[in-house]
Amino acid sequence: MPERKNTFSSRRRRIVQRAVHSGWSWVQRTGSVTADRPGRFRFGAMGTGTRLAFPLGTVFGEPWIHLGAHCIIGEQVTLTAGLMPDLDLGPEPILRIGDGVVLGRGSHVIADTTVTIGDDCYFGPYVYITSTNHSYDDPHQPIGKQWPRMEPVSIGPGCWIGTGAVILPGARIGRNVVVAAGAVVRGAVPDHSVVAGAPARVVRSWDPVAGWQPPLRTPAPVPIPDGVTPEQLLALADLDEDEESTSGFAERAAGGEA
């Protein structure tokens, strides 16, 4: 005999589930940090439209952190300036993030010395950027107890940093660079290049005459024509959905399923 379904229990579970989801959405909205609602944080600068999603990662040294406008800082992103909280780091900012930067969920930006991120950079989730590395000069001392080495890090505007990439101290990444997922970057990376591997190496670069070398294997995306409005794009998306539904119905009808 099949078990009888407890309709009341199922309905109550759905109600509780909706309440939990609604409550969590409220917590996320309320807990997010913006220039208008900074909470306990006092960043050195925070531009219009920038938001740190809740729940936040570790954040300290915020007087020495400057955030540009219209940035999206994902959940559980760590932003730190200095080796530890409550240090006086001087008059200049330590961590500078430009306008329109997107930092993916779970990323870390550890700025014990200067870290600069240019405008319109996009970072996948779980990217790790640090200006500090452990030293192991003394073979008789635990590595964690030896004084670390620090070198500034700079990332030029317009870059795309893939999921799980690691940017090490001293990295100087140029403009419009693609860093492949999982790459480990140190040293200089030229403008308009693609790097991959650990340690990262240039695997593709842009030549003003020959274009991308080696050539791209996929055709370039077709740009949106000038003058097309967002409303027209939404209407086009709805039209595509209607056509897919009609096509699916026709295929089922042809197969005798209608």
Automatic annotation (TrEMBL):
The keyword Transferase applies. One of its GO terms (molecular function) is O-acyltransferase activity. InterPro entries: Hexapep, Hexapep_transf_CS, Hexapeptide_acetyltransf, Trimer_LpxA-like_sf. Residues 239-258 are annotated as: Disordered. PANTHER family: ACETYLTRANSFERASE C18B11.09C-RELATED, SIALIC ACID SYNTHASE-RELATED. Belongs to the transferase hexapeptide repeat family. This is Sugar acetyltransferase.
